[in-house]
Amino acid sequence: MIKNEKSTNVIQSLQVGLNIIDIVATKNRPLKFTEIQELTGITKSNLYKYLNTLTMLDVLYRDKKDGTYSLGGKFIEYCAAALGDRNVIGKITPYLREISASTSQTALLAVWTHGGPVIVDIYSANYGLNIGAQVGTRLPLLSATGKVFAAFKDERDPQVKEWKQSELRKLTDERRKQLEEEIEGIRQRFFSYALEPLVKHVSSFSVPVLDFQRDLVAAVTVVGFTERIPKTADEQAGKYIMDCVAEISKSFGFLAD
Fold this sequence. Notes:
Blueprint: H1 12-26, H2 33-40, H3 44-56, E1 60-62, E2 69-71, H4 73-83, H5 86-103, E3 106-113, E4 116-123, H6 144-152, H7 158-168, H8 173-189, E5 192-199, E6 202-210, E7 216-225, H9 236-251
Antiparallel strand pairs: 1-2, 3-4, 3-7, 5-6, 6-7
Helix pairs in contact: 5-9, 6-8
């Protein structure tokens, strides 16, 4: 429910609009009009005006097929600018398109935020596939993307350390030990695989994008039906993805040993 506190020091309509954006962003899935109304308590007529304005400004996106709302391109552009990653997205987007078209799977790009890795771009060759995430979704540690960030993001950064510890607390002692061993292997192989981390029958393969200092810039991840996603870099699709991401890393100055 949106708070209705009045103050002479704030623009209430702007506050309401930002609260709507916050609700759409934090639900990690497209929302229907009725869901947004229930969560905000705004009258139908006023909510239509807010949603129409936010959609017109491309801060929210309305799917014409099912009428649901999700984060729009302009919002992601603002996020990228705040994170200093506008150039990252611009450089990697053409590769995402190519990977998605060549593998016939969904290709996504994730960058680091204070709360963990977040999806900032998606290209899908299979629009009927539910990958359990959308642009703006924070990805968990056990996802292929999450494991790449755990492996390559510097834990001396307090935010990275806090995120990893928070995620590890959700696991059993045995699973934590297994994961730490897996992460060490990811550092050596430069890719990770996750078996159905978010949605049944949907798995993922993720590769780090590194810069000239060997710092993690982003992660490129391919998501699709489990039987179509490579488990190793020895498979044809795995090798292709690895080669594409190696080219991306070269553009950021990374030199392989």
